[in-house]
Amino acid sequence: MVVEVPRWTNAKMEIATKDPLNPIKQDVKKGKLRYVANVFPHKGYIWNYGALPQTWENPAHIDKNTGFGGDNDPIDVCDIGSKVCERGEVIQVKVLGTLALIDEGETDWKIIAINIEDPEASLYNDIEDVRRLKPNYLENTVDWFRRYKVPDGKPENQFAFDAEFKNKDFAIQIIKCTYDHWEALVKKTEGGEINCTNTTVLESPFVCKQEEAKAIVEATPPCGPANTIPEEVDKWYYYQKN
Asked: What residues form DSSP beta bridges with 87?
């Protein structure tokens, strides 16, 4: 898993699929940096949030479980471990299950996983272990995904399976499917809207040499100090559906 957003932070960071080598950047909409609101009782993201590399939710593939195409991104992961990770950190996780979010008419699978270095990782082997050992954690995960866009004036998100979590075996099959779609994409001569420049897939027409990759990285402007969280983001939003 590549960690895009550490737990309890608000900046909507994500793998930039249209940029060479797909760096992590803060999403921008209408010229403004995007943040996730604190929808009571949640503070920012309630897990370490990120994605599995070498996966792709294909918009042209209508998922038989949801009836919708993919969201054109790598598959998302929620790490439920106790450590608050660093942005950009790469961690090995144990897959536990998945939730099928329908986000503005797109299939957006959320993989539930735990960092294998977590002190309690050996206790978690499937989604029911989360329900047993972390009471209300799964219910709050559904609540978070259902309501996090409401402060932006959008409706609640919907779910397939009536917001029921699917188990580990089901989740692994979904991951395998998104890997197959990624593999087909990166080996095409036309990557569409996804920038498939890479250094590892030798059969890919987008593969580049290490020297080229280094030049792309070195041409990137250096990171400056973090922006202050806007006042309208750094507050509670109380919301209850009428």
From this structure: none
